[in-house]
Amino acid sequence: MQLNNADIKRENEILGRRAVIVAGATAFALAVVKFAAGLIGGSVAVLSSAIDSMLDLLVSALNFFAIRKSQAAPNAKFNFGYAKLEALAAMFEGVLIVGAGAFIFYESVRKLQTEQAPVDTAFSLYAMALSVAVTGLLVAYLSRVARRTRNLIVRADALHYKSDLFSNLAVIASLILVEFTGFAAIDAVFGIVISGYIAVSAINLMKESVGVLLDRALDPEITAQIEEIIRSRPQIASYHGLATRKSANICYVAVHLVFNREISLYDAHKISDEIEAAIRAKYGEFEWQITTHLDPCDDQNGSCEC
């Protein structure tokens, strides 16, 4: 049985909410394990990773409510809906991640400046190995959901947990080096490296969110394809005022189509509908809001003299 667009949209909404719940539950479990390992083993890198997991839990809770609200229908006050809440939530997540990175950096530097206490690596290594395995499975799951739903929040979560995966691997590497060399300062050095990696990942996420909030145009490849679809209609003399933007999974397009003066309104409207249908068929993974203005001649300079 083939699903229609409404069914696919509904299914994607359910998948997005479920993904955020799974991410939050995973973050909570990993935070408990890491805190126990960090306190028992005395590793600042492990404790830093535990703090990061607690932030993941907070962010997942906020993301769940953001996804539910962003999927609400447009109304008289918000005619275009709440889709940009996804970008706002991702931006807030980025700010929190930068804060976590700054805290990890501070704690690592402070540990370097104080007398180095011995690190018990055995329990910490077991805990971090478990964390890597669980996080790897979570990243694979979130990435698959993000590709299917095109949800910015789920994509942000996938990116965040991917950075967690690499930072967890770095923690394991630091614990192994401490075990074999006996230099506890290595733990703090790796904490500094992890904080930098976390901050860079967050800044990239924030840049993408800003692009959505400022109505950045669609990718040039997609815009070029739209222009090609328009030019392929011989009844269209020219076009102008092509503007595009994307919010969540919805792509917005506005364009003025210039027809020959002799064409009937019915035929011009039919061709316009065909162009819209061709765009939707070409990029069926997105939702489209397309506005076409039908011109009898080129009026981009403010007049319509032929």
TrEMBL record:
GO terms assigned for molecular function: cadmium ion transmembrane transporter activity; ferrous iron transmembrane transporter activity; zinc efflux antiporter activity
Membrane-crossing residue ranges in chain numbering: 20-40, 46-66, 87-106, 126-144, 165-183
Domain Cation efflux protein cytoplasmic, residue spans: 218-297
Gene Ontology CC: plasma membrane
Membrane topology: Multi-pass membrane protein
Name of the featured protein: Cation diffusion facilitator family transporter
One GO process term, biological-process aspect: intracellular zinc ion homeostasis
Entry's localization field: Membrane
Residues covered by the Cation efflux protein transmembrane domain: 20-214
Database matches in InterPro entries: Cation_efflux (IPR002524), Cation_efflux_CTD (IPR027470), Cation_efflux_CTD_sf (IPR036837), Cation_efflux_TM (IPR058533), Cation_efflux_TMD_sf (IPR027469), CDF_Transporter (IPR050291)
Gene3D superfamilies cross-referenced by the UniProt entry: Cation efflux protein transmembrane domain, Cation efflux protein, cytoplasmic domain
Record key words, sorted: Membrane, Transmembrane, Transmembrane helix, Transport
